[in-house]
Structures are given as structure tokens and as C-alpha cells.
Amino acid sequence: MQNLPDKPSVAVVGTLTRDTTLYADGSRSENLGGTHYSLLTLAHLFGGRARILPVANVGADAYDDVLAALDVRGIDPSLLRRVPHPNNHVYLTYKDREEREEILKGLVPPVGFEHLAAAADADWIIVNLTSGRDVELETLEALRRGGVRTLQLDVHSLTLGFAEGGRRVLEKPQSWQRWIACADWVQMNETEARLLGDDEPLDDFALRLLGLGARGVLITLGSQGCLGVWQGRVRHSRRLPAAQTPQRAYPTGCGDVFGASFAYAMLEGAGAEAALRFANAAAGAKACREPYGELRRLRTLVAHELETLVPQKTRLRRR
Questions:
Q1: Beta strand spans in 107-193 (E)
Q2: Contact 175, 141 (CB under 8 A)
Q3: pLDDT band at residue 316 using 50, 70 and 90 as cut-offs
Q4: Cα 153 vs. chain centroid, distance in angstroms?
Q5: Which residues contact 52 (CB under 8 A, 6 or more apart)?
Q6: What is the DSSP pairing of strand 9-13 with strand 124-128?
Q7: CATH superfamily of 9-314
Q8: How far is Cα 60 from Cα 26, in angstroms, rounded to an integer?
Q9: If you write DSSP's letter for every residue of 35-88 in order, what string do you get?
Q10: What is the pLDDT of residues 47-57, one digit of tens each?
Q11: pLDDT in tens, 216-246
Q12: Are residues 139 and 113 in contact, defined by beta-carbon separation less than 8 angstroms?
């Protein structure tokens, strides 16, 4: 990345949720979720050195709690819109370390074009489809046509439809290629990749996505680590083992932390491989901890990776 801004702006498009999580060991947690993980990761990594813009509609029943949770140095809540709808509340039940059932209650409307366009000048835009209904495809395509610097898309719940009672079920969206074509960097987990790719080998599927216009593809593999494929002067492919495999894992939010950490490292001047390694380490740190409030310690938890993977000039600039 050339001409790195001293104080970058990062817009995060996606729904802020309430999460009720029941883990396989019987423990239970009540947290704010959705893009909270992305936003707080960015805020704590940048430490006030970036303007971080959440772009979302927020239900009136959750608006005050969301504002309180995002009262963190660097986060600018000016593009949060209070709406009269009940806010998204996600109920997660884990069957084991990674497999889970998801039920969604409440659903705020998608972000409209004028709302989204207010963030078009951001240095990096993360579109994290935490509900799959966060923004409409035509709105995102219009944003892309208007010109943006870098757009990172996390497919996330785009691959989830609705069954009775709000239960989310895997469903392959008909126009998924058009979503991919909007992005410079595309992120998804292994389940999403196998659904979209009809069980094509992941490396081959990632290469196919580059043909749709993406610069790079990031596939998280849970306890097996991650895969990154990207196009530079030559094509690169890296598969990394998980940075940590805790006996008691907290996987909710790990993908969000991964994506935000990748964006952070790239904005700080890291190359794609270093950013991939840093994101993998940050996601591993999150897997060991719950709730999202623990992200305030993230810089300490990944201090070695910051020292070895993030360019030295960035740390000099902070002093």
C-alpha cells in the first residue's frame, strides 16, 4: 500500500447485535456482538490513531447500550442511525468447539445508499455481513461504481437463509459472484467457502475468486488456521496453522477479529503475508477469551507479532 495516511479512516459496515451464547460445556454468555468485535479490535489496535466509523442501523431498544459499548477512543459513532425496529438479537448454541446453531430475533433494515455513501472516502471499508441483510447488493455495487479506496468483504451471514422461528440455515445466494466482484479483499470461513464453491478444493476456489476481480481471498479454517491467496506481482498462496488451540475455545467473533486485524496491519504498511500472519495471531488470542471486552488487551496479547510483522516505521510514528 502506497502513501499510507498518518491517521487512517476505517468504515465498518454491518449490524451490531446482542448475542446470547450457550457453549457446549453448558456455560452461557450475554454480550454485544456483530460488528462490535471488528470495531473494538480496530480501536484497541490503533489506540486512537485512526478514525473508525461504524455504519449501521441500530434498533431503538439497543441504541443506548451500543453507544456505551463503543465509547472508545477512535470510534466515531456519527454514522449510527437509531431506527424504531427491534435490534438484531442472535442466539448461538454450540454443539462442539466450532459447530453451532443460530437463531435471529429482530432485524433492522439494511443501510441505504446515502447512509453508506457518507463513508465512501474512508481509507478502508470493511463490509461485514453479520446478518446477511446489512446492505443490499445494488447499494454496494453503486458504492463501488462511485469509487472507493479499498473494500474488504466478509461474506459471513450472506450464506444464511431463514427457517421457522428465525433459525438460520445454510443457503447459497444466487448472486454471490456479484458480491465478490465488489471487493478488493474477500473473507469467508471454510463452511461458507465450501458452500459457494460446491466443495471445490479451497485453493482452487480461492483462485477462481481472483478471477472475479478480488485482489485477495482470506479463508478462516477454525482450529486448522487459515488460507490466504492473493495477487501481487506474482500469485501467492499461504496456509497457516492456528496460532492457538485452547482446550476451552471461544470462537464467536474470531473471524471478525481476524478481518479487522488484517485491515489494521495492511493500513500500517504490512505486506499481505505479514498481515495474514498477524490476523491469524489476533484471532488465536480472541479464541482464548470471552467476552469482547477482553479485546482491550489485544495489543499486549499480540505484542510479539506487532514487533515482528508490523513495519517499524509505524511504531516510530507513534512516539
A1: 124-128, 151-154, 160-162, 168-170, 185-189
A2: no
A3: very low
A4: 8
A5: 9, 10, 12, 39, 42, 43, 46, 74, 75, 76
A6: parallel
A7: Ribokinase (3.40.1190.20)
A8: 31
A9: THHHHHHHHHHHTTSSEEEEEEEEETTTHHHHHHHT-STTB-GGGEEEESSPPP
A10: 999 999 999 99
A11: 999 999 999 999 999 999 999 999 999 998 9
A12: yes
Domain-by-domain residue ranges, the chain? Answer: 9-314
CA dihedral sign of residues 161, 132, 150, 251: negative
In the chain, count of helices (H) and strands (E)? 12, 15
Side chain identity at residue 69, one-letter code: A
Q: Which amino acid type is present at position 180?
A: I
User: Residue 190 is placed in which grid cell?
Assistant: 471454510
**Which grid cell sits at 77?**
459513532
Count other C-beta atoms under 10 Å from residue 27's C-beta. 12
- Residue in the structure block whose three cell numbers are 431498544: 61
Helix ranges, the chain (H): 36-46, 63-69, 113-117, 137-146, 176-181, 190-196, 202-210, 254-267, 272-287, 298-301, 303-309, 312-318
Cell of 143: 458504492
